[in-house]
Amino acid sequence: MRNITPGHQRRFGRTEVRDIAISVAVLSLALTIMFYGTSIANYFEHHAGGAWPAVMFLTMLVIVVLSFVLHEMGHKFVAQNMGYWSEYRMYPMGLLLSLVMSLFGFLIAAPGAVYIGGNVMSDRDNGRISIAGPLVNIVLAIIGVAGCLLLNHTALVIPFYLLMTLNGALALFNMLPFPPLDGSKIYRWDKSVYIACLIIAGLLFASFWLMPTLYWV
C-alpha cells in the first residue's frame, strides 16, 4: 500500500466515497426501522405529519453522519497525519446484519472500517489512531447529554437524545478490549488512557438510564 506525507491533504478514493455513502444509507435505514413503532416514531409523526417517515430517515441520516462517519474520519485523518495510507471500506455482510437485526428492535453496527497501511506501525501509533474514533463519540455524547438537559420539554430534545444514545453506545462498544475493536489497541498502547476512556464511555452510556424523564411538545 502506498504511503503519504504526514499532514498531507485529505484524500478520498472513489471506492471509499461509495462505501461511505452506502454505509450511511443502510445504517440510517436500520435506525429508522429500529425506532419504528416507538415513542420516537410518534414524535416524528406528531411534528411532521404524513411526511414523518422521510423526516425521521433524514434525521437518522444526520445522526449517522455525525456519529459514524466522524468516528471513521477520526481514524483516517490521524493516520494520514502520521504518514499512513488510510481508506474506509464497508462490510457488506455487516451492513446486512444491521438491517436484519433492526427488524427485531436492536442494532448491531458492523458497517465497515478504516484500513491503514504504509510503514510498520508501532503500538503507540496504533493506539493514537484507534483512540481518535471513540473520542469523537465521547464528545458527541457529551453534546447530546447537554442538549437533553437544556432542551427538555421542547421539540428539539429528541435529536439530542438520539445523539447521546448512539454515541454513548458506540463509545463504550468500541472501548471493549477485544480485537479488532479500538479498545484492544488502546489498552496495548496505554492502560491508564484506556481505563480513563472506558470509565467516561461507561458513564455516558449509563446516561441513557440516569437522564431525567424527557418530555417534548
Structure description:
Mean pLDDT is 91; it is low at 1-7. 68% of the residues lie in helices and 6% in strands. It has a two-stranded antiparallel ribbon. The chain has helices spanning 14-35, 39-48, 52-81, 92-102, 123-151, 157-174, 182-189, 191-210; strands at residues 85-90, 112-117. α3 (52-81) packs across α6, α5 (123-151) runs parallel beside α8 and α7 (182-189) crosses α8 (191-210). The chain contains eight helices and two strands. It starts with 13 loop residues before the first helix and ends in a 7-residue tail after the last helix. The chain has two domains: 1-121, no CATH class; 123-217. 41% of the residues are buried. The protein is globular, with a radius of gyration of 18 Å. By secondary structure, it is mainly alpha-helical.
User: What is the number of strand segments?
Assistant: 2
Class per helix and strand makeup: mainly alpha
Strand order of the largest sheet: 1-2
Kindly provide the radius of gyration, computed on alpha-carbon positions and rounded to a whole number of angstroms: 18 Å
Shape: globular
Number of helices: 8
Q: Count structural domains.
A: 2
How far the N terminus sits from the C terminus, by CA atoms, comes to: 53 Å
Task: Quote the beta fraction.
Answer: 5-15%
The secondary-structure element order is HHHEHEHHHH
User: What level of helicity do the residues show?
Assistant: 55-70%
Give the biggest sheet: 2 strands, antiparallel
Question: What number is the mean pLDDT?
Answer: 91
Pick out the low-confidence regions.
1-7
